[in-house]
Write a structure and sequence with these properties.
This protein has three helices and six strands. The model has no long low-confidence stretch (mean pLDDT 94). By secondary structure, the protein is an alpha+beta fold. Helices cover 27% and strands 48% of the residues. The protein has a single domain (3-115), classed as Nuclear Transport Factor 2, Chain: A (Roll). The longest helix has 15 residues, at 3-17. The chain has a six-stranded mixed beta sheet, with helices on one face. Residues 13-106 form the SnoaL-like domain. This is Ketosteroid isomerase-like protein. It comes from Deinococcus humi. Keywords: Isomerase.
Length: 124
C-alpha cells in the first residue's frame, strides 16, 4: 500500500470515528498543512489541530476518492465529499489534495476544494 493509499484510508477512518489520531500519526514531525485559508498549520500539534477543526465542521462527512496517484515523493487525490454540516444542512463538494511524502510520512498536505458549497444561499 502506498503512503497515499494509507492516507486515504486513514482519512476515511477519521471521518467515520471522529478521531483523527490514526491520520495524524501518518504525518512527519515537521509537516505543514494548508487549505484555502491563508493560515498554515505546522508540526504534529498543527496536524492535530487541522484535522480536529476539519472534523468539527461536520455532523457527518465521508470522502470518496475518485482518482489517486503517487510518484516521485508526491501523492495526488481527487475526491468527492458528502455529509451534513454542524447545523444539519446537507453538503456535497469536491476537490483535490496533494501530499508531499518524506520518509514514508506526510511532509506537507495541501487541499483545494469547492468552497462555494459552504456558503448558504441568500434568504429572500
Amino acid at each position: 500500500m502506498t503512503t497515499t493509499e494509507e492516507f486515504m484510508s486513514a482519512l476515511q477512518n477519521a471521518e467515520a470515528s471522529k478521531d483523527p489520531s490514526g491520520l495524524v500519526a501518518l504525518h512527519a514531525g515537521d509537516v505543514t498543512l494548508s487549505n484555502l485559508t491563508t493560515k498554515t498549520w505546522q508540526g504534529m500539534e498543527g496536524a492535530q489541530a487541522f484535522w480536529e477543526s476539519y472534523l468539527s465542521d461536520f455532523q457527518e462527512i465521508r470522502s470518496e476518492f475518485t482518482h489517486h496517484h503517487e510518484s516521485d515523493g508526491q501523492g495526488v487525490m481527487e475526491w468527492n465529499a458528502r455529509g451534513k454540516l454542524k447545523n444539519g444542512d446537507d453538503i456535497e463538494y469536491r476537490g483535490v489534495s496533494i501530499i508531499e511524502i518524506k520518509d514514508g510520512k506526510v511532509g506537507a498536505f495541501r487541499t483545494y476544494y469547492d468552497s462555494a458549497a459552504f456558503v448558504s444561499p441568500a434568504q429572500e
